[in-house]
UniProtKB/TrEMBL annotation:
PANTHER family: OLEOYL-ACYL CARRIER PROTEIN THIOESTERASE 1, CHLOROPLASTIC. Residues 152-244 form the Acyl-ACP thioesterase-like C-terminal domain. It comes from Lactococcus muris. This is Acyl-[acyl-carrier-protein] thioesterase. Belongs to the acyl-ACP thioesterase family. Pfam families: Acyl-ACP_TE, Acyl-ACP_TE_C. Residues 3-132 form the Acyl-ACP thioesterase N-terminal hotdog domain. Gene3D superfamilies: Hotdog Thioesterase. Keywords: Fatty acid biosynthesis, Fatty acid metabolism, Hydrolase, Lipid biosynthesis, Lipid metabolism, Transit peptide. InterPro entries: Acyl-ACP_TE_C, Acyl-ACP_thioesterase_NHD, FATA/B, HotDog_dom_sf.
Length: 250
């Protein structure tokens, strides 16, 4: 395992949904910010990686376990570490805890290095990852196997790629995909259920530059919603969300 890094974070009003719970997209954003800050402390910032190798980091997969969503004004601790890497993939974990040390969220993530010009995945450069002290392994972690959608899968709301959707790497911020997926679900369902497990796989990056709409198709399979973020007939991302009914505490 690699060097651990942690920081505290107070859940802000703008990160909270109508139930006062931290939004999943903001959980992902804070996780990425935490890993970026560790990289900065190790002199491996995004700017350093780009200026020295013309590369940038991209997340290609998440596995998220939600035990208890952080709440508005709650002070949480986010711990992260790079756990291992091989010639193409790097693996990083995140753990969110409350002040009592209770684990709220666990995230396992898979990363690649992409060329800024060609937008293609390149081999992991040992010089980039050495300071994290994660072991180099030959094993590639087996990815989640996503459920197939039927022909009845539908899209309730399509989205354009807007300038505000883009991040510093010039493609759609990875948290936007989750928001596009769950915005297909109606208000009553979202108020009665919350996610317990989320799987996300990014297949192709989405860029700004044309006016075709994103069509996030989905369907229910038991207590799981299966989503594909689709554009021009291409499946850009797969998302599965396992939901649980909210039991209000007395």
């Amino acid at each position: 395992m690699g060097i651990k890094y942690s920081q505290t974070h107070k859940v802000a009003f703008y990160e909270s949904d109508t139930r006062g719970k931290m939004r999943i997209s903001d959980i992902l954003a804070v996780a990425l910010q935490t890993s970026g800050e560790q990289s900065y402390t190790l002199n491996r910032s995004d700017t350093w990686v780009y200026e020295n190798f013309n590369l940038f980091w991209a997340v290609i997969e998440y596995e998220i376990h939600l035990y208890k969503l952080p709440e508005f004004n709650e002070v949480i601790t986010i711990e992260t570490e790079a756990t291992s890497y091989n010639k193409f993939f790097c693996y990083r974990d995140f753990i969110f805890k409350n002040n009592s040390g209770e684990i709220l969220v666990k995230i396992s993530s898979t990363w690649v290095l992409m060329n800024k010009d060609t937008r293609k995945v390149e081999r992991v450069v040992d010089e980039i990852v050495a300071p994290y002290e994660a072991p180099k392994v030959s094993k590639i972690t087996r990815p989640h196997k996503y459920l197939a959608l039927s022909e009845e899968a539908s899209c309730n709301l399509a989205f354009p790629v807007r300038f505000s959707d883009l991040d510093m790497n010039g493609h759609v911020n990875n948290a936007r995909y989750f928001d596009w997926a769950v915005d297909q679900l109606d208000y009553d369902f979202r108020m009665a259920y919350e996610p317990k497990k989320i799987y996300i796989r990014y297949n192709h990056e989405l860029l700004y530059g044309n006016h075709e709409f994103i069509e996030p198709v989905f369907e229910f399979q038991g207590n799981t919603t299966c989503h594909i973020i689709r554009k021009d007939g291409i499946d850009n991302a797969n998302i599965e969300i396992v939901w649980s009914e909210i039991i209000e505490e007395d």
